[in-house]
Specification:
There is one protein chain. This protein has 7 helices and 9 strands; from the N terminus they run αααααββααβββββββ. By secondary structure, it is an alpha/beta fold. Strand 3 and strand 4 form a beta hairpin. The longest helix has 24 residues. It starts with a helix and ends in a 17-residue tail after the last strand. The C terminus is likely disordered.
């Protein structure tokens, strides 16, 4: 049986994986924010957007095709005598599976983040697997290159010798190198989406010598946000913004010097209560009053 048969098996299995991946999301990332995905597709003017390709899933498919094709070729060449699989073959496939599993865990832990790299539409196969949010990244590139190099060594040996590679070909040092490459990829992948805000509610309280601001927003639910601001001077602004009619309540108690202006802004139709008092020992001038809306 010639080496041409081996390459034919590689092409057939490779084409099968390609066809499946073109018609399914087998090798693609999982979208966690459909709204952000569609918005990005609109901005990029992509009419039929698809999720980006996953590097970890693609390298698992790569090794699956190579090892199965090699096994079948040796099996056919030896009249269906089952070839012996050296442990290093199993370790190599185990590294590929471990990479995919680790990447899946990382993606699941970041699915509630806003603007994830995985929630952007696919550009092209190589652009997807080589790029993070900043563009082509070295930790992804080195992993792809080493995977291709070791794959070529594997295919060349099987084609030339007609047997499955053993530890003299897929050496311990080569497996260690693959392990280091995988750790580098997975470790840095875990930080690709860090610094991105999470989906959820936000409450901010701030206080400064010249002014203070309290804001609370929780759409569709009751939200209480209370703030106490003591200012040496300047102005105080209390703002409550939320969904109209949501029953949000903002309360603020401000202790301020005489003559300081207090402004209350309510833009959501919610209840805002503000109590103002002067510094101990001082009083408002006769006839003075707080601006309309305060009590």
């Amino acid at each position: 049986m010639t080496i041409g048969v081996y390459f034919l098996i590689l092409v057939i299995l490779g084409a099968l994986v390609y066809w499946i991946s073109a018609n399914t999301n087998m090798l693609r990332d999982i979208i966690s924010d459909q709204q952000a995905f569609q918005a990005a597709a609109t901005a990029m003017k992509i009419k039929d957007p698809k999720p980006p390709f996953s590097l970890s899933r693609s390298q698992l498919a790569y090794w699956t095709v190579i090892i199965i094709s090699s096994f079948l070729y040796v099996l056919f060449k030896n009249n269906f005598k089952v070839p012996v699989l050296d442990n290093n073959n199993l370790i190599l496939l185990g590294v590929a599976i471990g990479t995919t599993a680790s990447a899946k865990v990382i993606d699941d832990s970041q699915k509630d983040m806003n603007d994830r790299n995985q929630d952007n539409p696919s550009k092209s196969f190589f652009a997807d697997i080589l790029s993070d949010k900043s563009g082509v990244s070295i930790h992804r590139l080195q992993h792809v290159l080493w995977t291709i190099v070791v794959g070529i060594i594997y295919i060349q040996y099987v084609g030339a010798e007609g047997t499955m590679p053993d530890k003299t070909v897929i050496t311990t040092q080569l497996l260690t190198l693959m392990g280091i490459s995988t750790v580098a990829y997975v470790g840095i992948k875990a930080t690709e989406n860090t610094g991105v805000g999470s989906n959820g509610n936000t409450t901010t309280n701030g206080a400064t010598g010249g002014g203070a601001a309290n804001s609370g927003a929780n759409p569709g639910s009751n939200n209480n946000n209370a703030g106490n601001n003591n200012n040496a001077g300047g102005s105080v602004t209390n703002a409550n913004t939320g969904v109209p009619g949501s029953g949000n309540t903002a309360q603020g108690t401000n202790t301020i010097p005489t003559g300081t202006t207090v402004v209350n802004n309510d833009t959501s139709g919610n209840t805002t209560t503000t109590a103002d008092s002067n510094i101990s020992g001082s009083s408002n001038p006769p006839g003075s009053s707080n601006p309309p809306g305060n009590s």
